[in-house]
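step=encode ok
step=design start
structure_in=
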């Protein structure tokens, strides 16, 4: 596996973080992704899971530092922006090494004169620091209010902070 090497300035981590965060926030909440017709274009679900496993192994070898990775592992085939979000040095994500929302679909219905309503389907790919790579149905994902910040953090079943009573993702109905 090819590793990146060379001079790394103080700007490199900041640029990587901003790029990952912006790419995740912009492309994943605005566009729709889990349409089975898109899966082959992305290399298929099996390919994404295999790449997720490779990413988890590489992160483990790099002591969970995404700056030490071959950055091609962060992007699925034919995806323009990073597919995998790596919550580097985020205390909430002590158990999670990365997650991916490529296979989460948001369908927005707009009725004239009313607010739009969104429906989310699909699943997240989640890499765990114990070596597992799992899929988590979007209906099982919860949102935890961030302390000292505005907004929400995504939490997955299996995380210490996870609680069924937390707010579900907008546009989903929790699984029964």
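sequence_out=
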């Amino acid at each position: 596996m090819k590793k990146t090497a060379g001079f790394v300035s103080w700007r490199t981590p900041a640029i990587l973080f901003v790029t990952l965060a912006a790419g995740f926030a912009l492309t994943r909440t605005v566009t729709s992704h889990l349409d089975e017709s898109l899966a082959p274009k992305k290399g298929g679900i099996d390919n994404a899971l295999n790449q997720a496993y490779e990413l988890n192994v590489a992160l483990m070898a790099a002591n969970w530092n995404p700056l030490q990775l071959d950055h091609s592992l962060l992007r699925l085939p034919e995806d323009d922006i990073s597919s995998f979000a790596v919550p580097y040095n985020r205390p909430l994500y002590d158990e999670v090494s990365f997650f991916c929302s490529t296979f989460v679909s948001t369908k927005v219905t707009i009725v004239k004169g009313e607010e739009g309503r969104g429906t989310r389907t699909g699943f997240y790919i989640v890499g765990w620091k114990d070596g597992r790579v799992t899929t988590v149905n979007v209906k099982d994902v919860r949102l935890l209010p961030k302390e000292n910040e505005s907004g929400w953090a995504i939490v997955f079943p299996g995380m210490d902070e996870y609680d069924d009573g937390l707010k579900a993702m907008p546009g989903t109905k929790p699984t029964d």
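step=design ok
step=annotate ok -> The first strand starts at residue 84 and ends at 85.
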